[in-house]
Write a structure and sequence with these properties.
With 158 residues, the chain is mainly β. The chain is built from 2 helices and 11 strands. The longest helix has 7 residues. The N and C termini lie far apart (42 Å).
Protein backbone atom coordinates (compact mmCIF):
# COMPACT_ATOMS: atom_id res chain seq x y z
CA UNK A 1 0.00 0.00 0.00
CA UNK A 2 1.60 3.24 -1.07
CA UNK A 3 -0.84 5.72 0.42
CA UNK A 4 -2.87 6.25 3.58
CA UNK A 5 -6.50 5.23 3.74
CA UNK A 6 -9.14 7.16 5.66
CA UNK A 7 -12.61 5.64 5.79
CA UNK A 8 -15.37 7.16 7.90
CA UNK A 9 -18.26 5.09 9.30
CA UNK A 10 -20.58 4.11 6.47
CA UNK A 11 -17.90 4.57 3.81
CA UNK A 12 -17.06 0.90 3.42
CA UNK A 13 -18.78 -1.90 1.54
CA UNK A 14 -21.78 -3.51 3.25
CA UNK A 15 -22.68 -7.19 2.98
CA UNK A 16 -24.90 -9.74 4.73
CA UNK A 17 -23.40 -12.28 7.13
CA UNK A 18 -26.06 -14.66 8.43
CA UNK A 19 -28.85 -12.34 9.66
CA UNK A 20 -26.71 -9.25 10.24
CA UNK A 21 -25.00 -6.66 8.09
CA UNK A 22 -21.27 -6.01 8.27
CA UNK A 23 -19.30 -3.10 6.89
CA UNK A 24 -15.99 -3.97 5.25
CA UNK A 25 -14.08 -0.87 6.38
CA UNK A 26 -10.78 -1.96 4.84
CA UNK A 27 -10.40 -5.01 2.64
CA UNK A 28 -7.41 -7.26 2.23
CA UNK A 29 -7.29 -6.33 -1.45
CA UNK A 30 -6.86 -2.65 -0.49
CA UNK A 31 -3.91 -3.47 1.80
CA UNK A 32 -2.21 -6.13 -0.34
CA UNK A 33 -3.41 -8.77 2.16
CA UNK A 34 -1.91 -7.09 5.23
CA UNK A 35 -5.14 -6.32 7.11
CA UNK A 36 -8.92 -6.62 6.95
CA UNK A 37 -11.18 -4.46 9.13
CA UNK A 38 -14.91 -4.98 9.75
CA UNK A 39 -17.33 -2.69 11.55
CA UNK A 40 -20.34 -4.44 13.00
CA UNK A 41 -23.17 -4.09 15.42
CA UNK A 42 -23.21 -7.33 17.36
CA UNK A 43 -26.12 -8.77 19.33
CA UNK A 44 -25.78 -11.29 22.17
CA UNK A 45 -27.09 -14.03 19.84
CA UNK A 46 -24.25 -13.28 17.37
CA UNK A 47 -21.47 -14.71 19.57
CA UNK A 48 -19.20 -17.08 17.64
CA UNK A 49 -18.23 -20.50 18.97
CA UNK A 50 -14.99 -20.70 20.93
CA UNK A 51 -12.35 -21.06 18.23
CA UNK A 52 -8.75 -20.52 17.13
CA UNK A 53 -7.18 -18.98 14.04
CA UNK A 54 -3.93 -20.53 12.81
CA UNK A 55 -3.16 -17.90 10.17
CA UNK A 56 -3.96 -14.49 11.61
CA UNK A 57 -4.00 -12.40 14.73
CA UNK A 58 -7.32 -10.80 15.59
CA UNK A 59 -7.98 -7.51 17.38
CA UNK A 60 -11.14 -5.78 18.48
CA UNK A 61 -11.94 -2.18 19.31
CA UNK A 62 -15.16 -1.74 21.28
CA UNK A 63 -16.87 1.39 19.99
CA UNK A 64 -20.03 1.16 22.10
CA UNK A 65 -21.61 -1.29 24.53
CA UNK A 66 -19.73 -3.76 26.71
CA UNK A 67 -18.26 -7.01 25.43
CA UNK A 68 -17.14 -10.10 27.33
CA UNK A 69 -14.16 -12.06 25.96
CA UNK A 70 -13.31 -15.67 26.80
CA UNK A 71 -9.67 -16.55 26.03
CA UNK A 72 -7.00 -19.14 26.57
CA UNK A 73 -8.60 -22.59 26.78
CA UNK A 74 -10.41 -25.12 24.61
CA UNK A 75 -13.43 -24.96 26.96
CA UNK A 76 -15.52 -21.89 27.80
CA UNK A 77 -15.60 -22.99 31.43
CA UNK A 78 -11.79 -22.97 31.62
CA UNK A 79 -11.17 -19.71 29.76
CA UNK A 80 -10.01 -16.46 31.32
CA UNK A 81 -12.86 -13.93 31.16
CA UNK A 82 -12.36 -10.22 30.46
CA UNK A 83 -14.97 -7.47 30.07
CA UNK A 84 -14.21 -4.67 27.62
CA UNK A 85 -15.77 -1.20 27.87
CA UNK A 86 -16.24 1.38 25.08
CA UNK A 87 -12.82 2.43 23.83
CA UNK A 88 -11.18 -0.87 24.82
CA UNK A 89 -8.68 -2.60 22.55
CA UNK A 90 -8.39 -6.40 22.75
CA UNK A 91 -5.65 -8.44 21.05
CA UNK A 92 -6.04 -12.15 20.25
CA UNK A 93 -2.86 -13.73 18.90
CA UNK A 94 -3.18 -16.60 16.44
CA UNK A 95 -3.63 -20.04 17.99
CA UNK A 96 -5.10 -18.62 21.24
CA UNK A 97 -8.70 -19.84 21.76
CA UNK A 98 -11.26 -17.05 22.03
CA UNK A 99 -14.85 -15.95 21.67
CA UNK A 100 -16.78 -12.84 22.62
CA UNK A 101 -20.32 -11.64 23.31
CA UNK A 102 -21.94 -8.31 24.13
CA UNK A 103 -23.02 -7.87 27.73
CA UNK A 104 -25.30 -5.08 26.55
CA UNK A 105 -28.14 -5.73 24.06
CA UNK A 106 -25.77 -4.70 21.25
CA UNK A 107 -22.18 -3.56 20.88
CA UNK A 108 -20.52 -1.74 18.01
CA UNK A 109 -17.04 -3.05 17.25
CA UNK A 110 -14.17 -2.94 14.82
CA UNK A 111 -12.75 -6.40 14.10
CA UNK A 112 -9.21 -6.36 12.71
CA UNK A 113 -7.50 -9.39 11.17
CA UNK A 114 -3.79 -9.49 10.28
CA UNK A 115 -3.32 -10.75 7.62
CA UNK A 116 -6.73 -10.21 6.10
CA UNK A 117 -7.58 -13.40 4.18
CA UNK A 118 -10.33 -14.49 6.62
CA UNK A 119 -12.67 -11.88 5.11
CA UNK A 120 -13.24 -14.37 2.29
CA UNK A 121 -14.99 -16.66 4.76
CA UNK A 122 -17.32 -13.93 6.06
CA UNK A 123 -18.27 -12.84 2.56
CA UNK A 124 -18.88 -16.42 1.37
CA UNK A 125 -21.50 -17.20 4.06
CA UNK A 126 -24.03 -14.64 2.87
CA UNK A 127 -27.52 -14.22 4.31
CA UNK A 128 -29.21 -16.85 6.48
CA UNK A 129 -31.99 -16.79 9.07
CA UNK A 130 -29.73 -17.94 11.92
CA UNK A 131 -26.05 -18.39 12.65
CA UNK A 132 -24.90 -21.99 12.13
CA UNK A 133 -21.11 -22.01 12.32
CA UNK A 134 -20.87 -25.79 12.74
CA UNK A 135 -22.51 -26.17 9.32
CA UNK A 136 -19.45 -24.42 7.86
CA UNK A 137 -16.68 -26.20 9.81
CA UNK A 138 -15.09 -27.45 6.58
CA UNK A 139 -15.00 -23.97 5.07
CA UNK A 140 -13.66 -22.54 8.33
CA UNK A 141 -10.88 -25.16 8.29
CA UNK A 142 -9.82 -23.96 4.81
CA UNK A 143 -9.29 -20.54 6.42
CA UNK A 144 -7.31 -22.04 9.33
CA UNK A 145 -10.12 -21.73 11.89
CA UNK A 146 -10.88 -24.57 14.32
CA UNK A 147 -14.09 -24.67 16.37
CA UNK A 148 -13.48 -25.81 19.97
CA UNK A 149 -16.66 -25.28 22.01
CA UNK A 150 -20.16 -23.90 21.63
CA UNK A 151 -20.71 -20.14 21.71
CA UNK A 152 -21.75 -18.58 24.99
CA UNK A 153 -25.54 -18.76 25.21
CA UNK A 154 -25.98 -15.70 27.40
CA UNK A 155 -23.62 -13.46 29.30
CA UNK A 156 -22.19 -15.45 32.20
CA UNK A 157 -21.19 -13.79 35.45
CA UNK A 158 -17.47 -13.11 35.70
Amino acid sequence: MSMALVRNPGGGTFYRYYDSVQEQVVSASETQGVVSVLRLTMRQADAPPLHTHSREDESWVVLSGRVRFWVGSASLDDCDVHDAEPGAYVFGPRSVPHTFQPLTATADMLVINNPGAIEGYFRSIGPADARQDTDHAGLLARYGVTLLDAPPTRPRPS
